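Recap from last week: sequence in, structure out.
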Amino acid sequence: MSASHTLVLQAPHLDVTRVTELSILAGAANVPTIANGVARVVGCNPARREVVLERAEALGVDANFVDGERRFADFGLLVSDMDSTLITIECIDEIADMQGLKPQVAAITERSMRGELDFSQSLRERVALLAGLPEAALAQVYEQRLQLMPGAQALLAACREHDVKFMLVSGGFTYFTERLKAELNLDYTYANQLEIVDGKLTGRVLGDIVDGEAKRQLLIAKREALGLRPDQVIAVGDGANDLNMLAEAGVGVAAHAKPVVRAQAAYRFNVSGLDAIRNLFL
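Predicted structure tokens:
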């Protein structure tokens, strides 16, 4: 079956009215049933793709055209960003809040995620503002503010069930990725290491920055180590520094992403949880 022939519609409260409108717009002969907020529309006209996606977004529905024969178990690796993707917060912004600097740091983070600033340079600038902060502030952020994105646990369960390895690749910090790895039983994690001396942040990052190109290279290295083809890899992210890895994956997903990422990603979600990735496939 052609990759353009199945339209997957998802929303927290998906109803038959919106599914019917989008099915007709997609040129499908039949309106599918809705199960757990998901409808799979088969027999779509691929030429209608852009108009369907535009209308679906206006209706508050996540719409993605997929290969109707693909199963989630066909994949071998899922690579995910951390901040504002696997978790709901930007860790560095919340750490900065402990210094009374959240507005300044968050503004830099936002510009970086939109692709307006060089990621590595902007990260160093933001980390420098954290100099002198006690390491205990990191624990406070992890314990009090960090929450998983809706659907994250369901996606991770699906990965375990179908033997899809899960790799967390973050431009954030190992302090958080290592704790998430232990708590969630993740297969692999990569991130930046904050320098801590005498229990306080120095304002520096140790080693090379995990930027957009590093994320891409880490995906390639893990894919090759696992003996997988590019089409057996899913990548998900929200910021401009995720674009390289999304382009490298067979399925690149923009999740609640910045406009520059939504515009370039083949698959995108604006209203659904991370379990929507699992629902794309049989």
